[in-house]
């Protein structure tokens, strides 16, 4: 069996497409991943994350483009010839094999000598902290333990590339946080290259070196968590990064990358990447944290409070403006539902071109 | 509900009444709904079986075991066991060996319904019609032999009816769909992610079958084998119509039928039916016992 | 399954499909032989008959008294469907909703008639029926046919009833429905699709049930399949085409119901019960 290289400098997806009949699940995806990087694939449900991963793993043939490992083309290889490790969303542990046999499965398929399998499996069990569970069947393990077995099984074959498809989505909130740290620790300890699929932006932000945002099979933006969090390039990426307030307005002025927008008579100033002509339609995107209720101000947006919730340090409320935009804001004192608030946003305000 | 906490001495007065106590054990009016069917089953299944068992030890003549002694002394009788096994075992195994790869293929099909509906045909038509159809179709002048001769594969018609092969063919045509549909339901019950996981771990197609599918499917195959075998073992109309009921396809059902309805010896007939049941049971138990060697449980990777 | 594109895999797939096609072709050719023969004036030693006619249907109808046989068949099948429906659904309801001592034993009792082939328990059953004088009568045939169908309905209906939320019944009771009203207004409408499917399957299986009917039927209580058996068994007495015409009549009766059944059930259910419940 020809296993693809175990050492490489980069994985390159070159205009990879995948169609399901008339549906283009992936459209010319270009992506380069460096060795030892932790990449998160982020996007809404149905955007093609699993499809991308399955194409890389070889579980789905691509319908266009190619996948390269340095100078070796791998998209023509069968999955078993690629030698990548994969952690499945539902773990896909072999129910008839115990923990030790599950983890050793890949090595056994490669014909590794018994003694070496034992040694490596023990190492892997130590790495994922599953000592004492070796002889249990998957059905006898908790969700978090199954998760660790799935990870151990994928990494014990020392794959050049580890693929993970929403590995934490079946776990409860607390375990999810623990396993998140665990996955990052294992990645660092092994010096592996990891592609991690998730639809949870917190997970992506905290784990990844770089994040790839997909939508409708198209790569919308690639960047470090900081870049994405602070400067999403598109409105839909901003949406994903927590910019929940989106206000339609008209451009008043635009210079040096900053624009002033008129929204229902109020003024918002923010960063604008794209060229915006005065008078053109624009969308102001603001995180709830940055939308603050203040006393009357000349440029504030007037809105009627719908609900208000106590969040310990502060209050979070929802409101609607005269023209019906829904708003989420923060306030340091409570306000009565039905009363009018004056909302302003000074920092981390983004301006995107809008449609008329 | 047990008695509630109370300080009065007359605690028992508050305790559950008989109806509630029975209900707590699952016995109430709803449970009684099962009684008619149970009585029916006792009267028409258990009682006849027990009656037949007793009757088989009350022969027309001779000691209490003489029916069984006669059966195992008379080659015309005891050879039916071998003849029946010689038909039913190879057919069942062949059906299973054919069904497995086909089930793996058909699983990938988007529209399985048409194929499964076609395959259900011979089962619903039943053994008598299949026997009648094959009698013509496989006969010396039938389309099957004609086609082979037209293609020059044979120079004179094969003898396919009124012998072993006629019965074999009929068991194949009614047995294969049955085996196949059972196998298909087991194969589709296995989470495809398991195979994908095995592939990413470097297992090739054969290794995936050998190390993932086979161990998970073994219990299902054992059950499929048993059910198919039991059907083939009790072959009756086609052995008479398509076979050589006095010779190589004199199966055990024929012996039982003749004892009952030609010799009117119900005691002997019951003895033959009991022997038939025991042989079937022995094989079924042997196969199912070997099932214990394999993993039995949900065939999916995740919990819950 | 992962689709393989290597040459070996393609050859393998081709071989598998070749067998399926071979099987289906033979099946249709076999059925075609019967149909062709039933319309043949004379068919000896040629691919196709010398001429076509429908007269065998008239002669089969009178020779085999098909009118009477069909009437008996439908009466038997109708009664079997009705009785196994009533007995089976009520028992299935109890088994699905209650846990009581001896439930496993009862389940085993209902499973056995489906696992043991009819010819094995049919012989002792026929013996008992002959001794009680029921054998040979219409009711004897109905009783014998019920032995496997009642358990069949029970086993098909249990999973179906289990998936209906018991809270619905609790709610109906809270709103004052007594058991009878509960059954008519709540349970029956919910269970109807399942009952329909189960009974259609019973119908298809009973029309084709040869062994039990054969063992207990008398001359006036034969069903179509048994009459067909006797006709084929005594081949030579009557023209082959006449027997084939009868076979076609039998096929049509079976297939009509099969087609109806397939509208409501998955074909695999004719062989197994609900797929979620493999017979472990
Ligand atoms: N086998 C298939 N046949 C047809 N369409 C498919 C198939 N697999 C996926 N799709 C479609 O391709 C698109 C991308 O699917 P994919 O599974 O990659 O989404 P995803 O981003 O992983 O979503 P999720 O977060 O819900 O898992 C979806 O519109 C989906 O309906
Ligand atoms: Mg997905």
Put simply, the count of helices of chain B is: 13
CATH H-level superfamily of the largest domain in chain B: MetI-like
Assess the beta-strand content of chain B as a share of residues: under 5%
**Total count of strands of chain B:** 0
What is the terminal-to-terminal distance of chain B? 31 Å
- Determine Rg of chain B (CA atoms, Å): 27 Å
Largest sheet of chain A: 6 strands, mixed
Strand residue content of chain A = 35-45%
Secondary structure category of chain B: mainly alpha
Quaternary form = heterotrimer
Output the strand order for the largest sheet of chain A.
Answer: 6-7-8-3-9-10
Task: Give the arrangement of secondary structure elements.
The complex is a heterotrimer of chains A (356), B (304) and C (280).
Chain A: E1 10-20, E2 23-34, E3 38-42, H1 49-57, E4 64-69, E5 72-73, H2 79-82, E6 85-87, H3 99-109, H4 114-127, H5 143-155, E7 161-165, H6 173-190, E8 193-198, H7 201-207, E9 210-215, E10 218-223, H8 225-230, H9 235-240, E11 245-255, E12 258-263, E13 266-272, E14 281-286, E15 292-294, E16 301-310, E17 315-321, E18 326-331, E19 340-344, E20 350-353
Parallel strand pairs in A: 3-8, 3-9, 6-7, 7-8, 13-20
Antiparallel strand pairs in A: 1-2, 1-4, 4-5, 9-10, 11-12, 11-14, 12-13, 14-20, 15-19, 16-17, 16-19, 17-18
Helix pairs in contact in A: 3-4, 3-5, 4-5
Chain B: H1 18-24, H2 29-32, H3 35-56, H4 66-73, H5 75-106, H6 113-137, H7 143-150, H8 164-188, H9 192-200, H10 205-233, H11 237-241, H12 252-261, H13 266-291
Chain C: H1 7-38, H2 55-63, H3 66-97, H4 103-115, H5 118-132, H6 138-162, H7 166-174, H8 179-208, H9 211-216, H10 224-233, H11 240-264, H12 268-271
The complex binds adenosine-5'-triphosphate and magnesium ion (MG).
């Amino acid at each position: 069996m020809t296993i693809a290289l175990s050492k490489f400098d980069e994985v390159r997806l070159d205009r990879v497409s995948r169609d399901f009949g008339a549906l283009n699940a992936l459209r010319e995806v270009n992506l380069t991943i460096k060795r030892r990087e932790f990449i998160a694939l982020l996007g809404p449900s149905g955007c093609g994350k699993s499809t991308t991963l399955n194409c890389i793993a070889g579980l789905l043939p691509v319908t266009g483009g190619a996948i390269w490992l340095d100078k070796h083309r791998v998209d023509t290889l069968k999955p078993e010839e690629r030698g990548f490790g994969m952690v499945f969303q539902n773990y896909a542990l072999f129910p008839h094999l115990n923990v030790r046999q599950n983890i050793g499965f890949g090595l056994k398929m490669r014909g590794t000598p018994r003694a070496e399998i034992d040694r490596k499996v023990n190492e892997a069990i130590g790495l994922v902290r599953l000592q004492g569970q070796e002889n249990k069947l998957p059905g006898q393990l908790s969700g978090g333990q199954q998760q660790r077995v799935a990870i151990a099984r994928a990494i014990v074959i020392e794959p050049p590339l580890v693929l993970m498809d929403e590995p934490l989505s079946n776990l409860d909130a607390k375990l999810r946080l623990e396993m998140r740290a665990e996955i990052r620790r294992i990645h660092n300890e092994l010096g592996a290259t990891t592609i991690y699929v998730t639809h949870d932006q917190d997970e992506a932000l905290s784990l990844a070196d770089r994040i790839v945002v997909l939508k409708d099979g198209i790569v919308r933006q690639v960047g470090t968590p900081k870049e994405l969090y602070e400067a999403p390039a598109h409105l839909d990426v901003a949406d994903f990064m927590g910019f929940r307030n989106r206000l339609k307005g008209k451009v008043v002025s635009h210079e040096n990358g900053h624009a002033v927008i008129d929204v229902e008579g109020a003024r918002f100033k923010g960063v604008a990447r794209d060229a915006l002509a005065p008078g053109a339609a624009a969308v102001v995107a603001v995180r709830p944290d940055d939308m603050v209720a203040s006393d009357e101000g000349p440029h504030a947006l007037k809105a009627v409070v719908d609900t208000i919730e106590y969040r310990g340090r502060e209050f979070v409320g929802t409101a609607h403006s005269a023209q019906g935009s829904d708003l989420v804001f923060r306030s340091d004192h409570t306000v009565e539902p039905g009363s009018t608030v004056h909302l302003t946003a000074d920092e981390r305000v983004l301006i995107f071109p809008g449609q008329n | 509900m047990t008695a509630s906490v109370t300080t009065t001495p007359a605690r028992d007065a508050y305790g559950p009444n008989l109806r509630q106590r029975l209900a707590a054990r699952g016995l109430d009016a709803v449970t009684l709904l099962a009684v008619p069917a149970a009585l029916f089953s006792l009267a028409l299944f258990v009682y006849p079986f027990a009656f037949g068992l007793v009757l088989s030890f009350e022969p027309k003549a001779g000691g209490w075991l003489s029916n069984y002694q006669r059966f195992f002394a008379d080659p015309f009788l005891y050879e039916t066991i071998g003849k029946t096994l010689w038909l039913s075992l190879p057919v069942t195994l062949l059906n299973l060996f054919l069904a497995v790869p086909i089930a793996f293929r058909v699983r990938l099909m988007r529209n399985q319904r048409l194929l499964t509906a076609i395959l259900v045909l011979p089962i619903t038509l039943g053994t008598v019609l299949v026997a009648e159809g094959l009698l013509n179709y496989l006969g010396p002048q039938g389309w099957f032999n004609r086609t082979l001769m037209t293609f020059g594969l044979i120079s004179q018609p094969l003898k396919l009816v009124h012998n072993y092969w006629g019965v074999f063919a009929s068991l194949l045509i009614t047995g294969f769909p049955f085996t196949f549909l059972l196998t298909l339901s087991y194969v589709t019950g296995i989470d495809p992610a398991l195979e994908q996981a095995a592939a990413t771990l470097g297992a090739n197609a054969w290794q995936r079958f050998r190390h993932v599918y086979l161990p998970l499917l073994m219990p299902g195959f054992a059950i499929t084998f048993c059910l198919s075998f039991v059907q083939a073992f009790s072959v009756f109309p086609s052995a008479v119509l398509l076979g050589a009921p006095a010779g190589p396809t004199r199966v055990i059902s024929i012996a039982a039928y003749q004892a009952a309805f030609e010799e009117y010896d119900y005691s002997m007939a019951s003895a033959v039916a009991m022997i038939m049941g025991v042989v079937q049971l022995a094989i079924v138990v042997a196969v199912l016992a070997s099932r214990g060697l394999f993993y039995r449980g949900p065939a999916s990777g995740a919990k819950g | 399954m992962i689709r393989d594109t290597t040459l070996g895999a393609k050859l393998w797939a081709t071989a598998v499909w070749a067998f399926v096609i071979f099987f289906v072709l033979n099946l249709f050719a076999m059925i075609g032989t019967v149909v062709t023969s039933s319309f043949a004036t004379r068919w000896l030693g040629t691919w196709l008959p010398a001429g076509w006619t429908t007269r065998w249907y008239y002669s089969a109808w009178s020779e085999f008294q098909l009118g009477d046989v069909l009437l008996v068949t439908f009466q038997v099948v109708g009664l079997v469907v009705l009785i196994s429906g009533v007995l089976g659904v009520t028992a299935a309801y109890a088994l699905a909703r209650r846990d009581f001592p001896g439930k496993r034993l009862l389940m085993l009792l209902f499973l056995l008639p489906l696992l043991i082939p009819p010819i094995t328990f049919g012989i002792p059953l026929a013996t008992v029926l002959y001794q009680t004088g029921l054998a040979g009568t219409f009711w004897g045939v109905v009783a014998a046919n019920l032995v496997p169908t009642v358990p069949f309905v029970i086993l098909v209906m249990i999973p179906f009833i289990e998936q209906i939320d018991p809270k619905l019944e609790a709610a109906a009771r809270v709103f004052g429905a007594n058991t009878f009203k509960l059954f008519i207004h709540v349970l029956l409408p919910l269970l109807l699709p399942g009952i329909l499917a189960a009974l259609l399957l019973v119908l298809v299986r009973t029309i084709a049930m040869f062994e039990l009917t054969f063992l207990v039927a008398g001359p006036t209580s034969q069903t179509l399949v048994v009459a067909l058996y006797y006709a084929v068994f005594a081949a030579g007495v009557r023209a082959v085409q006449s027997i084939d015409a009868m076979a076609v009549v039998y096929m049509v009766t079976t297939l009509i119901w099969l087609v109806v059944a397939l509208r409501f059930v998955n074909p695999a259910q004719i062989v197994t019960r609900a797929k979620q419940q493999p017979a472990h």
